[in-house]
Amino acid sequence: MTSKKTITSVSAIILLITSILLASCNGEIAVAEDPTATPTPTKVVQVVPPTQTETPSKCAGFAGELEVQVLVGPAEAVGLEPFTVGNISIGVTSAEAPYFIQGSGRADYSEILTEEWGTYEVTMNLDFIVDGECADDGATGQLFLTVEMSGSQLVVVTSEGFYGEYPWEGTHTVELEFPVEEGATISGEGYVFVLHVSS
After folding, report:
1. Is residue 47 in some structural domain?
2. Is the dihedral of CA 39, 40, 46, 50 positive or negative?
3. Number of domains in the chain
4. C-beta pairs of 54-58 under 8 Å, 24+ apart in sequence
5. What pLDDT, on a 0 to 100 scale, did the predictor assign at position 35?
6. Residue 165 near residue 154 (C-beta atoms within 8 A)
7. Is 29 helix (H, G, I), strand (E, B) or coil?
8. What is the largest CA-CA distance in the chain?
9. Rounded to whole angstroms, how far apart are CA atoms 114 and 121?
10. For 81, phi and psi rounded to 5 degrees?
């Protein structure tokens, strides 16, 4: 009886050793799991915050037009149309800040008053040159412009036995500051400027 139990025990030990050897040859070692242990994730997930969409600059690629009205003094004095109206095309000339602005335009005026006593004729021609800069503060844009107005004016009065010419020519410069908004308006002594935004 003793020899059979011994043989059975020895056989069990041999089988156990054989199983361990086979497992180690395959590179696998059985490890008892702790049921209370928290499994450690093997994959690391990186959280990337969403990128903020940048507000496009109102100055980049800006183009527009200044509508200009200039008071023609001698015309208003006799009841003719008091303003000459012109347009000045303006736009950004640089691809990045600082955004430089340039532009030019013209206004022409010719009106004649005919009465029983004679005629009163007014002619005005103006050229405009614009230089400046568009400043971008992230929310809106601001135009800082210098407008040079140069030209000539002629008043001709004819009456019975009278003829007179009253010429004028010169240059006038105004400083303007506009928000980059459609319809922004600036007025001064003898002039009105209205901004029209194309882009």
Report:
1. no
2. positive
3. 1
4. 55/138, 55/139, 57/97, 57/99, 57/136, 57/141, 58/134, 58/136, 58/140, 58/141, 58/180
5. 54
6. yes
7. coil
8. 163
9. 9
10. -55, 120
